[in-house]
Structure formats: C-alpha cells, structure tokens
# Entry
Amino acid sequence: MDSHKPGTPPGDLAIWLFIFAELLAFGIFFLSYAFARSHNVELFNESQQHLNRESGAINTVVLITSSYFVVRAVAAIREGMSRQCAHWLAAAIGLGGVFVVIKLFEFQEKFSAGITLSTNTFYMFYLSLTIFHFMHVILGMVILVAVMLKARRGGYSAEHHTGVETGASYWHMVDLLWIILFPLVYVIR
Amino acid sequence: MHNIENQRSQFISPCTRIWLGLLVLTGVTYGLGEMTLGGTQIVMLVLIITFIKSEMVAGYFMGLRQTSLLWRAIMASYLVIVGGGIAIAYLMGLK
# Structure
C-alpha cells in the first residue's frame, strides 16, 4: 500500500518540497508587488482600474471548482473507482482550459491596447505575475492529463494512488496561489 | 461497504461545504472590489478573507488538516508572513 504515512501530506514528499519552493518564489513576488505599490500608490490604483475584475473573479470560481473536482477524483480513487477518478479529472482539466481561455482573452486585450512589461511598474508586475501563474496552470494541466490517462488505463487502485494525490496537491497549489493573487492585484487599492 | 461509504462521506461532505464557502467568500471579495473602496478596514477585511480561503484550501483540499503540526505550521507561517507583509506594505503606502 503506497498511501501516505500518517501525519504526512498526501502524495509524494518531493512534490511538497517543490510546492513550498514555488510558494516561496510567489511569496517574494507578492511582497515585491506590495512594497513597490507602497511607493507608487496612485499609479497602481489608477492602472488597476483598467483591469477586468469580472474575469479575475470568474477565474477564481473556475479554479476553486476545478480544485474541488480534483478532490472528488482523489476520493474516487481511494475507493478504487478508476473511471470516476478519470471523469472528475477530465472535468477539472476542462475548467483549467476555461481559465486559460479567459486569461488569454485578458492578455490579448492588454497587448492590443499597447500594454507591455515596460508600460509602467504596475503592468510590469501584473503581466509577469499573471504570466508566471499562467505557466503553472499549463504545467498543472499537463500533470492532470498524465494522471487522468493512467487512471483511465486502470493504473491506480485504492491501495496504490500516490500519483493521483501528487498531481492533486500541485493543482491545489495553483488554486491557492490564484486565491492570493486575485485580491492582491485586482481588488486591494 | 458501509464503512467505506462512511469514510467517503466524511471526506466529501466537508470538502463540498468548503467549496461552497470558498465561492461565497470569492463573491464577497469581488463585491468589495466592485465598491472600489480603499481604506485600512476594507484592505484588512480582504486580507483576512484571503487568509481564511487559503487555509480552507490548504487544510481541506490539500489535506494538511490531517498532517502533523509541523506541516500545518509551515503553511500557516507562510500565509501569515505573506499576508502580514502585504498589510505592512499597504500601511506604508498610506503615508
């Protein structure tokens, strides 16, 4: 049986080291944004007004729901239900795709307005933070697709499903980071 | 079989409630953003909501609630340091 030891988090220990390294990198990024803002409050508040807060909020709902579907996938495989696990993962990946499409529209809107990394300090942070997170969403989707395909082939069982928990932990981290990023960049003024 | 069903509901039911709670708190955060209100109290409220949401995801979705104190302390420390740093930076911007 390869389920995690009592007291340790679900999934492979290595993914948790990776998760905390990622959280640290994003944490430094978040604090850099916040302290840069403290020196340019008017610029940040004015630029923030041009962000699409609706799409940010919708993407928050999308990622939270996707994370919940991954929870259901983990619950399914813990009972040995591979097909249900694959179905929940497919739904989570689908919502990941919705996030990507919404974000691409948002990026396209900004780029077509002539906004780049060098427009001002706010947009430098906005674009680099959201693009950095976007890349993590893509990587998370690739991981979930690999896990889903293995689950569909019956590669996991109630006793052996560390791979599902590992992929799930990474995806939840992507969700957690967006939960911090959305209010920080789109809401707080 | 009954035991498995019981274990399943013990895992899924709290997570379903957490999911619904996260959606409600996201709505509150969005609503506060739409009011375009600044001010220390609003910012602190948004940060507290964000901390609660993050703890909900870490504890229930990521499963840290079932782990040893060390793992939970690492995550809680991270959220406090990042959230506290953002709050300090915001207060510095008021001057």
